[in-house]
Amino acid sequence: MRFPLYSLKTGILAHLAFLIISAMLLINIVMVKFAERDLIQAKIQTGRLLLHTLALQLNSKFSHPNAGMADVVSTPGFERKISELVEAGAFSASLLVNREGAKVFTVGNWDEGEKNAVSVSREALTSETEVIDFYGSTWGVIWLAHKQLNMAAPVSLDGGIRGVSVVSADLTPLYQSLRKSEKFILIYIFLNTMILVLFGIFLLSRTVVKPIHTLLKITEEFKDGEPFPQLVDESRNEIGRLFRSLNIMLKRLEENKSQLESHISSLRRANEEIKKAQDEIVRSEKLASVGRLATGVAHEIGNPIGIVLGYLDLLKKEEVTPEEKNDFLNRMESEITRINEIIRQLLDFSRLTGGEKSETHLHKLILELLDLLKPQPMMADIKIELNLEATGDVVWADPNQLKQAFLNILMNAADAMENDKAADEVSRPRVLTITTRAIENAIELRFADTGPGIPEKVKVHIFDPFYTTKEPGKGTGLGLSVSYRIIEGLGGTIRAESKLGKGTTIVIDIPNQNQVNE
User: Fold this and answer.
1) What are the structural domains, with CATH classification, of the chain?
2) pTM score of the predicted model
C-alpha cells in the first residue's frame, strides 16, 4: 500500500494517527494521575494504621499515669519493636515528641525531612488532631511530584496527651513502580494505534478514497469534444449522493454546452458582421475625406497645368533659342513634379491597407499629413504652430489609420474656424496648434484650434456615430467617431477640452512602443 506524500490517504493516516495517539495519551495521563492518587491515599491509610499501632504500643508501655514519653522509650527492646513496625508498614522513619514538643526518640533514615517532621508533630500537638504533610519534590511519572509523606498523630492516655508520634514515607519507590507500568502502557498504545490506523485506512479507502480516485480518473481522462461521462455509485451514503448530484450537474452542463456553442457561433457571426460594418464605416469616411481633399487638389494642380501649357505654346514658336528652350523644359519639369507629388500624396492616403501595425514615428506622420493639407482651400489662411516636443515618438500602430484619425481632427478644426470666421464680423486669428509631449508610458498629442468652442450639451456627443452640427451635405458625423475607434483600438484615449469663445482642444494619449512591448 503506497502513501504518496500529499495524497488523501497520507493526510487521513497522519490525522487519524495523531487523533488516536492524542486520545490515548490523554487517557493514559488521567489514568496515571488517578493511580497515583489512589496509591498515595492507600499510603496515607497505611500510615494511619501504623500511627494507631504505635499509640497502642506506647500506651502499653506506660507503667503509671505520671510516666512520661522519655520513660517509655528507655524500656528494653522498644527501639527494635518500633523499627519492625515502621518497616512492616513500608515507611522509612519515625520519631516521638513529648508533650512539651521536644524530640525524645527517632528511628530510620530522615535525610533532610526531620525538621519538617518535628514541625508537623508540634502542629499535631497544638491541634490535638492528625496532621498530614508532603515535603520536598522529585520526578513523578509525568511531572514533578511530592517526595516525602509525613504523618503525625497525638498519643493520649486517660484523656491526657502524652506526646506525638510521627511516621515518614519516601514516595520515590511508588513513582518508580508507576513508571515501570507506564512502559507497558506506552507499548500497548503504540500497538493499538497501529491496528486502529490500519483498519481505519482500510475502511476509509473503501468508502472515501476509492470513489474519489474514480472521479479523478474520469476527470483526468476526459477530453474536450467528448460527451460527458456517466458516474455510477449505488451506495446510499454521502459519496453515493455526490455521484448522483454530479451526474445531474453533468447533464445540465451537457445541455448548457450545446446552448453555449450555439450562442458562441451566433456571436462569432455577429462580431464578423460588426467588424465588416466598422471597416465599411472607416472606408466610407476615408473616401469622404479623399473626396474633400480631391476638390482642393484639383484646384491646386490647375495652376501648374496652366503654366505647363503656356510653356508648350512658347516651345512651338521657331524663334525660341536653345537656352530658352532648356529653361522652359526645366520649368515644365518642376511644375509636373509638383503635380505628381500632390497626386501621390492623395493616392497614398486613399489606398486601402490591411491594417497591419508597425513602428510609426508620430512627428514624421504629422508633417506628411500637413503637406497633404497644404493645397486645400480650407487651410489657406490658417497658421500652423508645431510644438513637437515628445522624445521617443515611436508608437506601434497602422500609420494609415493614424493619419486618417488625425486628418479627421484637423479638418474638423479647420471647418470650425471657417464657420467662426463667417459668423463673426470681427475676424479672429485662425491658428491651429499641434503639440506633443511624453507622459508616463504614453505620448500625448494636443490639437488646439481658435474656433468658437463646443457647448457642454454638444461635447458629450461629438464622438457618437452620425452626430453632427453641420448643415446637411457638409458632414457625415462619422469623422470623430472613426478617430475614437482607431485610438481606442490602439489602447489609447481621446477626449475634448473646450470653452465657448476660446476654441477646442482634442487630446489624444497613445501608448508608446516600450509600454506595448511590456
Assistant:
1) 8-192 (3.30.450.20), 356-518 (3.30.565.10)
2) 0.42
